[in-house]
Amino acid sequence: MSSSNKGLRLSMPEPEPDRVFDDADSPELTRAKNEYLRVAKVRRFNTDAILEQLAYEGCLTVEDFEKKTAWVKEQDRVENIETVARSMRDRGFPRRHLDTIVAAFIEGKDQQVTDALAKARAFAAETGRCLLVLSGGTGVGKTHAAVSLTFELEVNGRLGYNGLGGISHFIAATDLAKRAGFDHEAQWRELEQSRLLVIDDYGAEFADGKGWLAAAFDGLINHRYADCRLTVITTNLDAAAFKSRAGERIADRIVEAGRFVVLAGESLRRRKAG
Ligand SMILES: Nc1ncnc2c1ncn2[C@@H]1O[C@H](COP(=O)(O)OP(=O)(O)OP(=O)(O)O)[C@@H](O)[C@H]1O
Ligand SMILES: [Mg+2]
């Protein structure tokens, strides 16, 4: 090797040896210390820094270490929830709903389980079904349930990663037309391939006279149905109006591989305001 090459040699940090405590502590204390070291290292704390901090804090008992371990695990849990929520916002999921969902999740409480949320969860538990339509009057919690379902699946690692920079997507039906043009092929493909796609407020979009958007919608749903990808559609249309707008082909696919859920009840918005 020439002397000029020597100067270019990359110096890689030595991998840290796995350090374990094996001093004169009781086995319980050794176990508690090692467990703390393990979780703290996952958060990429350096072993020496951890040991230094422990000495500074005067941690001595099993309880000290268990408390610290629980704290680090809680930090991890909250960070994971916030990362998922941030990423979902970037993929179009509305902040208004996500914030409520995230706050409940961080607190470890369940949200208000509306009929919409219960039915969405029941759908997710059914295997082999991929197309959910939540139909009902305004304010019954359809959009919230669709966002919550997606969040719950993502945070529990149930959607995996599809290699396209995102694993689920949310789009208002009124925005579908903007994505369906020839100039947006990549964005359209993202909607076709997303692991879970929420199409919000189907029926609110402008139905062009030539049926061009209807054909694009049909193509999108059919593509996703063929690949067994989860699709959640929220709509104010009842079953008959939905069928007449979406067409026989989509209605047929819902019968075979989906659920058309009709939600009754008064608007939660009005109840909140009242
Ligand atoms: N499970 C829930 N927990 C807390 N708040 C909820 C829940 N479900 C719905 N809400 C709240 O109720 C209101 C109405 O919910 P949402 O927007 O989901 O209704 P919607 O059925 O989609 O209505 P629209 O048909 O008008 O779009 C919102 O303010 C929402 O945040
Ligand atoms: Mg809605």
Overview of the structural elements:
The structure is a single chain. The chain is of the alpha/beta class. The chain folds into 2 domains: 24-90, no CATH class; 91-273, P-loop containing nucleotide triphosphate hydrolases (Rossmann fold), CATH 3.40.50. Helices cover 57% and strands 11% of the residues. Strands 2-3-4-1-5 form a 5-stranded parallel β-sheet, with helices on both faces. Mean pLDDT is 85; it is low at 1-10. The structure holds adenosine-5'-triphosphate and magnesium ion (MG). Magnesium ion is lined by residues 142-143, 200-201, 234.
Distance N terminus to C terminus?
80 Å
The helix content, as a percent range, equals 55-70%
Mean pLDDT: 85
CATH architecture of the largest domain: 3-Layer(aba) Sandwich
Report a brief summary of the structure.
This protein has 13 helices and five strands. The protein has 274 residues and is α/β, with parallel strands linked by helices. The protein has two domains: 67 residues, no CATH class; 183 residues, P-loop containing nucleotide triphosphate hydrolases (Rossmann fold, 3-Layer(aba) Sandwich).
Keywords for this structure?
5-stranded parallel β-sheet, 13 helices, alpha/beta, binds magnesium ion, 274 residues, Rossmann fold, 5 strands, 2 domains, binds adenosine-5'-triphosphate, disordered N terminus
Element layout with pairings:
Layout: H1 3-8, H2 27-42, H3 47-57, H4 62-90, H5 95-107, H6 115-125, E1 131-136, H7 142-155, E2 168-172, H8 173-179, H9 185-193, E3 196-202, H10 212-226, E4 230-235, H11 239-246, H12 248-257, E5 258-263, H13 268-273
Parallel strand pairs: 1-4, 1-5, 2-3, 3-4
Helix pairs in contact: 2-4, 4-5, 6-7, 9-10, 10-12, 11-12
The structure holds adenosine-5'-triphosphate and magnesium ion.
Adenosine-5'-triphosphate binds next to helix 5, helix 7 and helix 13.
